What we know:
Helix content is 44%, strand content 20%. The protein has 296 residues and is α/β, with parallel strands linked by helices. The strands form 2 sheets. Strands 1, 2, 3, 4, 5, 6, 7, 9, 11 and 12 form a 10-stranded mixed beta sheet that branches. Strands 8-10 form a two-stranded antiparallel ribbon. The longest helix is centred in the first third of the chain and has 22 residues, at 13-34. It is globular and about 55 Å long. Pfam families: Glycos_transf_2.
Amino acid sequence: MDLSVIILSYNTKDITDICLSKVEASKIYCQKKMGNKIEILVLDNASKDGSPAMIRQNHPSIKLTASFENTGFSKGNNLIMKEVKTPYILLLNSDCYLEEESLYKALAYFRVNKNCDALGARLNYSTGNLQPSAGNLPNPLNIIFWILGLSFLFSSFHPKNKNYFSKNHQVGWIMGAFFMLKKEIFDTTDGFDEKIFMHMEEIEWCKRIYDFGYKIWYVPSVSVIHLHGASTNFDLGSSYFNELKGIKYYLQKHYGIIYYPVKLFLILGLIMRVIVFSLLFKTQRAKIYMKGLSVV
């Protein structure tokens, strides 16, 4: 085997079914073009919607591990990555739909660019619009600019500029929805920090990957559809809340006591957002930011 595709599934039966069909089609195309051997592994995180039975029936060639508990994104992926023996791994969300050429283009890029150790794809919403999926590594300064709504003045860890996503280039982090890497990275860095259940886990890992001297690239010619939020039942408020928790953990882990002056700006930024969105009568958004004050 040359590539192991690892997919975590959690109560997304119909979406996962389509995802796996797309992966299988991309696998066949890649194997015909390059002769690569590719395996597909799924960890079902204790779904209650019949996902394991569907996978066994509709995709019998896929290796399925059915967990009795929801291990979360970090622990679940680490468990499967420990098992694989292939030189390359692709971590793929169950709400991502590959194009037929996606696996071929990604593996081919590793062969062309010897400085590429991990690769992120262009992610598109179901509408076809770009989903920002890479950025600069967070640091105390760009987090302060971000929470105050001033990211445009400094190198953002959440860039929105379309030019940033228009060309191949080295980046600080890539989104975990499509995360292809050399297996040696996992062996060297021990994978995701399992103290992070969901959100910011790929960014924290990318920080350690960078610190070990590996190179991470964003490659827009590899393109996939990402049904953003499907794995959290499209609860984007929960996603923002968990991101704030992840940012706190990230700063404390990598910057120590510097977190505490940054915390003051996080509180200030959240209060400003609560006030602004309350005045705009967007009470749901205001409540999300108010809730965020309890975790920073």
